[in-house]
Amino acid sequence: MKKLLLALLLIPVLFAGCSKKTGGKSIAVFVPGIIDDSPTYAKLTRGVQKAVDELNAGADEASKINLYILEAGTNQAEWSAKITSLVAEEKYDVIISSNPSLPDLVEPIIKQFPSQKFILLDATKEGNANIHTVSYDQSQQGYLAGYVGGLMTKSHKLALIAAQEYPVMNEIIYPSFVKGAKDACSDVTVDFRVVGNWYDATKGAEIADAVIKNGVDVILPICGGASQGVISSAVNAKIYISWFDDSGFSRAPGTIIGSSTVNQEKMAYLITKEFFEGKTPWGTAKMVGMQDGFIDFIQDDELYIKAVPEDIRQKMKTLVEDIISGNFKIQ
What we know:
six-stranded mixed sheet, globular, disordered N terminus
C-alpha cells in the first residue's frame, strides 16, 4: 500500500519534469564558464536579466518570461553535452550565449532539435535559420591593445598569452595586436603562447615568467581565470599588462596600462528585447565596433592617467578618434 501511495505521489512530479513549457515564454542563458570568473559572462547575464525584468514589469503572472541561467563551467569538452541536455527539455524559446566556439557546437544539436533557436554573442555564423550571431570587431580591440603596448615597451618585446587557439584568435586578435604594436614601435617583436585552458592561473604565471625572462615587458593575456596568474607575474616583475574586454585597471594599479572594452551588457539587453519584439534577423551575422558604441578604449580612469605618460595618452586619444570617425581603418 505504501509503495502504491508513493508511486501515485510521484506521477505528477515525473510528468512535470518531462512536460514542455506552458504559459509565458521561457529563455535560457548558457554560460560557457563561471560568471564570477568572467566579466564577459557577468555582463551577458546582467544584460539579459535587465531586459527580462523590464519586460516582466506590469505583466500578468501567466505571461511573464521565465529566465534560466546555466553555468557550464570551464571544461569545454562538457559544453556540448550540457547544451544538448538543456535543449532536450524543449521548453526554451531561445538560448542565449556568448563564445566564438558555440556555432560549431550548436549546429549538430539543431539537427536533432530543429525548432530550437540560438542567439550567440562574440561569435559569427551566417546561413542557419535557427541562429543569429553578433560579433565585436576584435581587430579594433587587438590593435588598440597592441598600439598602447608598443608605445609603452622599453625592451621592444611584447607577448600575447591566450587560453587556446581558435579562428578569431589566430586570424584576427593576434595579427591585429602585432600590427598595432609594430605601428607604434616598428622593431617590436611579439611572442605568442597558449595556456591550454581558460582557468589555470598557475600555468598562466609560468608562461608569463618564461616570456618575461626573455625580455618581454608588455603582455596581453586573453586566458580567462589564467589571466590572474599572468597579472601576478607581471606585478612581481614590474612589467606592464594590456587588458581586454573590460576595465582592468583596478586589478593591478600601475601594471595595467590599457583596457579595450566591449559593451556586452548593452548588446545582451538589446538582443533580448529584439527577440521578444519578434525582430531577430535569423540566419544573419552582425558585427559591431567602436563606431557603434560597443567597443571602447578607456581613457578617463584615474589609474590609466596615473600609469601612462601624457604624450602616450594623447596618441591613444587621437587613434581612438580616428577609428571612430573612419579616418583610420585597421587593414
